Amino acid sequence: MSQLGRPTSGKRRLKDLLDQRDNRVCADCGAPDPKWASANIGVFICLKCCGVHRSLGTHISKVLSVTLDEWSDDEIDALIEVGGNASANSIYEAYIPEGVSKPRP
């Protein structure tokens, strides 16, 4: 079916989303090739930022491995609904004060 449509396998839908340009780098620090995601926040993140997200607790950020964990259709749908890194960051970074920069890899 379509790129992010339903009938394709969950792993395929997740990979299609990860392959989008803005999702090829960590949403938080810009490190290339993120292998983790926050299912409820809707971003792809690197291993280092994954540790920070995990320390927040699953009630804040539910972190899953893109390759190692089993994702439910609902988790994938939620990630797709957010739209990935660019969409989520346009919300979460909308009011960052001038002069404050993102962490680096």
Automatic annotation (TrEMBL):
PROSITE patterns: ARFGAP (PS50115). SUPFAM superfamilies: ArfGap/RecO-like zinc finger (SSF57863). Keywords: GTPase activation, Metal-binding, Zinc, Zinc-finger. Residues 11-105 form the Arf-GAP domain. One of its GO terms (molecular function) is GTPase activator activity. This is ADP-ribosylation factor GTPase-activating protein AGD12.
